[in-house]
Design brief:
Elements: E1 2-6, H1 13-22, E2 26-31, H2 35-38, E3 48-50, H3 52-64, H4 71-89, E4 95-99, H5 104-114, E5 117-121, H6 127-134, H7 149-161, E6 164-167, H8 170-178, E7 186-188, E8 211-215, H9 224-232, E9 240-244, E10 258-261, H10 269-273, E11 278-281, H11 290-298, E12 301-305, E13 323-326, H12 331-345, H13 364-376
Parallel strand pairs: 1-2, 1-4, 2-3, 4-5, 5-6, 6-7, 8-9, 8-11, 9-10, 11-12, 12-13
Length: 378
């Protein structure tokens, strides 16, 4: 089939394009990512349809206004610009797969002009559910993230227009069903991981302090304030908390034992995972955090909230207890769960392979095959 995919950045859509191309489809990725960059992630140049030349002024405007009060306006203009450009430039396709907030006009155009089946990729909860959760974030003097009304309008229109809404996890699926979207319109397909870059690691040497790692932006949305408080309540003696990623709107802990390191290239993360026993993610809302699959593939026990998609990953591990879930916002439950996982993880020695025979099912190849099967079922 001819498959057109629309996104702004790489996200998981570049991996999807690569895998559908390998399945034998004729795939075109419309995005702001040039061919020299998508080539690094295995996407053939023939699949790249770069929108950069058409949107350079809007992209530059968004970068210039990123830290100002006009940032939301710039985001809106860029979203509309990407959608408008794609709707005008897109060629005949059998299937269109568009990222939410970017695809309202293009969804309608490909159905009307080509009779295409339309898929909408939503990486997070229903936008009204996301809006409600973000509105409850604790105020700490920072500008709290909010869902703008223009984004709500665009997404609701896209939900209505698309034939299928693709979601990565059960909690995201439930948020759509709770808002009246029928289950038959939803396709749940958990993301994959590049297993070549995240092999099983050796357990930290004996005598290494029990170490918890969090990877991603240190922010309220990711529940880092709750994670820091839970870490301070651990009964495991001498534990460390290691953070790798950017700094957001949550304050960094000043306690001894906390270490922060700036964002590193994805290919270097395996070296950081090798230093830890447990990965923890306390997000208040996140569709399916990709780092969780990386951590499991690397041999880390996982602790996460029920709004991270972690429970979808339990099917891939040899022992489901390797992944433990705590309610979002419950600091005491989070601390107790981390203690339990540290006790289990610190007993491991040698090569840590928690996936066993299920390892291949966590790959991007398996993710692409599930998508391919859904397309062929049309």
């Amino acid at each position: 089939m001819r498959v057109a995919i629309l996104t702004s950045g790489r996200f998981w859509l570049c991996d999807l394009a690569r895998e559908l191309d390998r399945c034998g489809h004729e795939v075109y990725l419309y995005s702001l990512v040039p061919a020299w960059r998508t080539r690094r992630f295995g996407l053939p140049d023939r699949c790249n349809r770069w929108l950069g030349p058409y949107l350079a002024p809007l992209f530059g405007l968004r970068r210039a206004l990123r830290a100002t009060r006009y940032a939301d306006m710039a985001n809106q203009l860029l979203s509309i610009g990407i959608d408008t450009a794609a709707a005008r430039l897109i060629t005949s396709c059998d299937v269109f797969i568009g990222l939410s907030q970017l695809s309202r006009s293009t969804l309608r155009r490909v159905r009307r002009r080509f009779g295409a089946h339309t898929f909408l990729e939503r990486g997070n909860r229903h936008i009204l559910s996301q809006r409600d959760i973000l509105a409850q974030l604790p105020a700490n003097g920072h500008h709290l993230p909010q869902v703008p009304q223009w984004a709500v309008r665009r997404e609701l229109a896209e939900y209505e227009s698309a034939d299928v809404i693709v979601v990565p996890s059960a909690h995201v699926q439930h948020s759509f069903q709770a808002r009246g979207v029928p289950a038959a319109k939803l396709f749940r397909n958990p993301y994959g991981v590049d297993l070549a870059h995240f092999p099983p690691t050796l357990a930290p040497p004996a005598g290494t302090p029990p170490t918890v790692i969090m990877v991603g932006t240190w922010s309220l949305r990711k529940g880092c304030d709750a994670l820091a408080e839970a870490w301070c309540r651990l009964t495991t003696r001498g534990s460390r908390l290691l953070h790798v990623g950017g700094l957001g709107d949550a304050p960094l802990p000043k306690d001894p034992g906390f270490t922060h390191h700036d964002t590193v290239d994805q290919h270097e993360l395996t070296n950081w995972y090798a230093q830890a026993h447990v990965m923890a993610l306390a997000s208040r809302e996140e569709g399916l955090a990709l780092v969780q699959a990386q951590g499991l593939a690397s041999g880390l026990h996982l602790v996460a909230t029920d709004r991270t998609g972690a429970d979808d990953l339990q099917a891939y591990v040899t022992d489901p207890a390797t992944v433990r879930i705590a309610p979002a916002g419950d600091v005491f439950a989070l601390a107790a769960t981390i203690d339990t996982q540290l006790d289990r993880a610190c007993r491991l020695v040698g090569r840590r392979d928690l996936l066993g025979s299920g390892r291949a099912r966590l790959s991007w190849e398996a993710y692409g095959r599930r998508y391919d099967a859904r397309l062929r079922s049309l």
